[in-house]
Structures are given as structure tokens and as C-alpha cells.
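Quick one, T. Sequence first:
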Amino acid sequence: MYKSVLTLAAAGLFFSAAAMAGGLSFTELDANGDGVISKDEAASSATLAPLFADADRNADGKLDKDEFAALVQPADEGAHEKK
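C-alpha cells:
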């Protein structure tokens, strides 16, 4: 479990930088406009495709906006709470 979390966090940092550099956005990846990114839609992104299973936190086969945001946001949760 810890290894998966660590892998996802590292991948999130990489994907965040790649998304900004490549101009990827949720809207662009959601090709059919249904409000989620399917596994097939994710396959169009060499960056997102290998991260899809870990990013799909509820294992429904789709990434919603919250799951996508958790992937592309910096992994610094709790950093400000310890003041």
C-alpha cells in the first residue's frame, strides 16, 4: 500500500509538470465531453495512460474531475496544517 501511495505521489509530481508543459487539461482529455476521462480517452495521453489505474481511486474505470485534480496537484497535503 505504502509503495502504491509513494508511486502515485511521484507520478503525480511528474504528471503535474508534464501537464503544464504539454498543455493537457481535463477538458481536452475528456474527448466525448461526458464529464469523466475513460480508460480509452486516457490512452490518448502517454503520460496519463500508465497512471490511470492508480489515479482511479474508486476503481470505476473513469477519472472524474476530483480524481484528475488529485493527480495533477502538488502532493503537499498537510504541509500548511503543521504550523
